[in-house]
Design a protein that fits this description.
The chain is of the alpha/beta class. The chain has two domains: 122 residues, HUPs (Rossmann fold); 88 residues, no CATH class. The chain contains six helices and ten strands. The chain starts with a strand and ends with a strand. The mean pLDDT is 95.
Length: 222
């Protein structure tokens, strides 16, 4: 019997990638696409700062179609919610039954997603909810997942971490105040390989820039 057709909210980062890995091990779920919001003004993944060309290469490497939602910049919340409502209606119209998220422990984020999916015909799924994030981070690194920190909040983590590999060495150096998975927005990542990939996405590091209060490490297709 086919599993529940599910669209996965895809940030290009490690938690979304790990959610895909977990979902693919669940017989009752069939992931049929990746849903990503992009910044239409800069052709990059919102918040993570990743180029759309790399996002597209990522989707190809995991073997799933990409649903891009270009957001205006700046993007008021009303505009975001209107665009997401359109996507939910399209998904339900195409027989998709659920939307999955890689959220870990922020209750208010989870509650918001549940509220916004109410009445859309899409059930919310949280396949990696409420883990011990220190253990999860080590499990990700041990699995062969390869990621780079593309965005750092310098108020929470030193700017020098931007552009570094997400690996055991980095985890050992994180201050105790920083969640090992960056769940409070301390950092964001781009995943270029791992057990959920059919092949790696070749990347090279570009320049590091400070913008809008964050530090971004640009990644370029290699």
């Amino acid at each position: 019997m086919a599993g529940t057709k599910t669209l996965l909210s895809w940030s290009s980062g490690k938690d979304a990638a790990w959610a895909l890995h977990v979902l693919r091990q669940m017989d009752q779920v069939e992931v049929v696409g990746l849903l990503t919001t992009t910044n239409a003004a800069f052709d990059r993944v919102a918040m993570h700062g990743v180029r759309e060309a790399l996002l597209e290469a990522q989707a190809e490497a995991v073997g799933l179609p990409l649903w891009k939602v270009p957001l205006p910049w700046p993007c008021p919340n009303e505009a975001y919610e209107a665009l997401m409502a359109q996507v939910c209606a399209r998904a339900a119209g195409e027989g998709i039954e659920a939307m999955a998220f890689g959220d870990l422990f922020l209750e208010e984020v989870r509650d918001y997603r549940i509220e916004k999916l109410a009445g859309t015909g899409l059930a919310p799924l949280f396949p990696i909810w409420n883990p011990d994030t220190a253990s999860l981070a080590q499990e990700m690194a041990a699995s062969g997942l390869k990621a780079v920190l593309t965005c750092v909040d310098p108020r929470a983590l030193d700017a020098s971490f931007a552009g570094r590999d997400y690996d055991p060495a980095l985890l050992a150096e994180l201050p105790a105040s920083v969640d090992p998975c960056g769940e409070r927005g301390e950092f964001h990542t781009f995943v270029w390989d791992g057990p959920m990939f059919r092949r790696p996405v070749p990347v090279r590091r570009g320049e590091v820039v400070a913008r809008d209060g964050f530090v971004f490490a640009d990644l370029v297709p290699a």
